[in-house]
Amino acid sequence: AAPMPMPMPTPQPIQQMAQPMMNIAPMAVAPIGEPKPIMTWAAVGCIVVALLLTIMGQFGNSWQVSSEDDSISLGLRNISIDCSEQQNESSCISTTYILLAEDMEKAANETAPSDPVVKGDIEDYCENMYSIMLNIATLTDNDSLRTEAGEDRETCLKNDSAGGISGMILWIGIIGSLAATVMLVMSMLGQTLPGGVENYGRISSFVSGGLILFAAILWMIMKNNLDDTLGTGMAFYLTLFAGFFAVGAGVLDMLDKREK
């Protein structure tokens, strides 16, 4: 009888190599079409910069500055006069302190501060200047000076009105920028806010940026120069840039959603 063929043994090394290969977890692959976070980070950075610049503009005291010696500077509703460059510094401080006081008679009986930079409200400055010129017109019986005093008062108070209206709009822009910052950060982190408001960060950025730009342009249209030497200062340009940054944050967020 012919000998029976022996069965071929199964190669064990192959099975031992295959088993570990099956136990290896598959590599994580980023899903196609997921937005990349770089644009979102850039949007958050822009809206934060816009928020900081708007706050600096709101409280800045350099919306209008003297182009000659920087002795006079105006904020939205305040005025600052520097007497340090004057020949008679103490006399300048005393006069300016009375001129910027809310009550001139009371300030005249008080001791002026030693700080050469004297600050006050634009409205008080306008009213006090009007009172001084009106008293002079009354004493000299000068009707033309009385008329000029009234016109100068109205021109001066336009700066206070411009600053008050623009300041209110800027506060709304600050609140909108702060809300947009929270929304964009929550959206980037994948967190859910009540009502799904985290999805409105882009809209909030556009709206707040538009309001900030509108406030700056409105101030430029409404204000009047108290002096021919006054020019537009740094606070105005900071606010203007803040509006562009806020709008840019919305644009960057929109590009992030479309990036593949």
Set down the secondary structure blueprint:
Elements: H1 12-23, H2 38-59, E1 64-66, E2 72-74, E3 78-82, H3 89-99, H4 104-108, E4 117-121, H5 122-140, H6 143-189, H7 201-222, E5 230-232, H8 234-258
Antiparallel strand pairs: 1-2, 1-5, 2-3, 3-4
Helix pairs in contact: 2-6, 2-8, 5-6, 6-7, 7-8
Key traits:
8 helices; 7% strand; single chain; alpha+beta; 260 residues; five-stranded antiparallel beta sheet
Q: What does this protein look like?
A:
- 63% of the residues lie in helices and 7% in strands.
- The protein contains eight helices and five strands, in the order ααβββααβαααβα.
- The chain has helices at residues 12-23, 38-59, 89-99, 104-108, 122-140, 143-189, 201-222, 234-258; strands at residues 64-66, 72-74, 78-82, 117-121, 230-232.
- The chain has a five-stranded antiparallel sheet with strand order 4-3-2-1-5.
- A hairpin with a 3-residue loop joins strand 2 (72-74) and strand 3.
- Helix 2 (38-59) runs antiparallel to helix 6 and helix 6 (143-189) runs antiparallel to helix 7.
- Residues 24-35 have low confidence and may be disordered.
Number of helices: 8
In terms of DSSP E residues, the strand content is 5-15%
Q: Note poorly predicted spans.
A: 24-35
Taken from the alpha-carbon principal axes, the silhouette is: elongated
- Structural class by secondary-structure content: alpha+beta
The average pLDDT is 81
Main sheet, how many strands, which sense, barrel? 5 strands, antiparallel
Distance between the termini: 74 Å
Helical percent range?
Answer: 55-70%
Task: State the strand order across the main sheet.
Answer: 4-3-2-1-5
- SSE run: HHEEEHHEHHHEH
Number of strands: 5
Radius of gyration: 34 Å
